[in-house]
Amino acid sequence: MEVINKRRSIRAYKDTKVQKEKIERLLRAAMQAPSSYNQQEWEFLVVENKDTLKKLEGMSSYSKPVGDAPLAIIVCANKDSMKSAECWEQDLGAVTQNILLEAVELGLGGLWLACAPVEERMNYVKEMFYLPKSILPYSVVAIGYPLEEPKFVDRYNESKVHYEKW
């Protein structure tokens, strides 16, 4: 629970590059996610170029933090790898969460910026990175060393839990 409790949406980062070994660990964690039919339809685009990260801010009005991050991982689905197109968004949600949790484990912080299912955002990423037709961008995860230590917030709410019936 410690990693889960420490995870927060980080929007401000130190100007420190994320080491290659840590990037690989983030990607390894991502690929350990469950997937429907074990289709593992994920693909990843790793972005470290400052100018490219700044341009990625234009994806949505909420995307400014990605321009200040030293790293972004764009989580995508490959339609050609899908045995079924029904659950790709759930699969990539698990992938994205794994990245965020491993980031905490590595002393990093991250911010999940939704891309899918918003067509405008998906098209922005597709065009910006010249994605092939078979690739669907799902999320942009901004990653870096947090500028400030995030504080724990207990979100448990007993009134949201129902037993046996509503």
From TrEMBL:
This is Nitroreductase family protein. InterPro entries: Nitroreductase, Nitroreductase-like. Residues 4-72 form the Nitroreductase domain. PANTHER family: NAD(P)H NITROREDUCTASE YDGI-RELATED, NITROREDUCTASE. Keywords: Flavoprotein, FMN, Oxidoreductase. It comes from the Bacteria. The keyword Flavoprotein applies. Pfam families: Nitroreductase. GO terms for molecular function: oxidoreductase activity. Its cofactor is FMN. Belongs to the nitroreductase family.
